[in-house]
User: Fold this.
Amino acid sequence: MAAIKGSLNVKLSNYPPANAGALVKLTNPSTGQVIERKPFLDGSLVVRDIDPGEWQVQVLHPNVTLPLFAKPIRVLPQRLPTFVPVPIDPIDFRDTPIVDVPDANLAPVQQAASAVRTQASAVGGKGAGEVIRAEDWNQLVGAVTDLAGAVLELASLVSPRGHDHPEIATKIDEVQGNLRRFVTAFGQSLLELRRDIENENLRRYTVDMLDVGGVVGPARDRIIGRVAELETSLYATPVEFSAKMAATGTVLAAEVNEIAVGKGAEAAEFLATPQVQKVLTLSQSLAASGGQITAEEELGTYRRTGVALGGSKVGFLR
Assistant:
């Protein structure tokens, strides 16, 4: 009898213009299988006959650098498709142009200045001892007055008091918002990648310790299963993940001690092996990591374990 396959029903909503260019990418972390499908213009997409289990669902768009949606989804072994709502945030596509503010019209100021020059020139050319008539004086005063008015007008056009640029302020707010969203998304992705690396190292060190101790059967499966629980919490908050790390570290240290007790006279030799020492160092650091509330605190734990263990944590990639 053939195994029952699963299906996914993906529905994009909130921003229909994004549906045309969207790409839904499904990745099976267990098998490495990757499925890419384009949704219909209404945002709907049904992917049938896929293996049940956990799938990483991403919604990509060529106009946006980061995924519009990224979340692990568990596909159930049933004919009814697993529904995956994907709300699209329209602000991800926002790119408000700066308002084109027209240049100040300085033609009236120029005309006033030209008229003042003509008025002042008309009363010039007086000789020594020549009488300045009241008419000439008044014309000169009028010219100076007009010049003062033109200068005031120029000052208000070029550098007005209390001037503001709301269009630039709006653009700056938008850029800041985009930057904050990018930093948040990038930081979360980096934290999840670091958790994946740490979990792989913990699993590798644990397996090496079990091999040295000759642990087989249900005890081996129980210990590895306990470590594997962390791998299902990659996307948890720092508070939730640190609590799981602390619990795993405590249990792992207890398991190592129980194995050592079972060794009897060989316990000291077992505990002194490099493989066991690495697990004990990691378990002690993890046990003390509970109560962390920020990503910075969690990353600090990984830095401390890196210093304690020495060497590269991505050596398994080579």
Notes: The radius of gyration is 37 Å. Residues 166-213 form the longest helix (48 residues). The mean pLDDT is 80. Residues 172-312 form one domain.
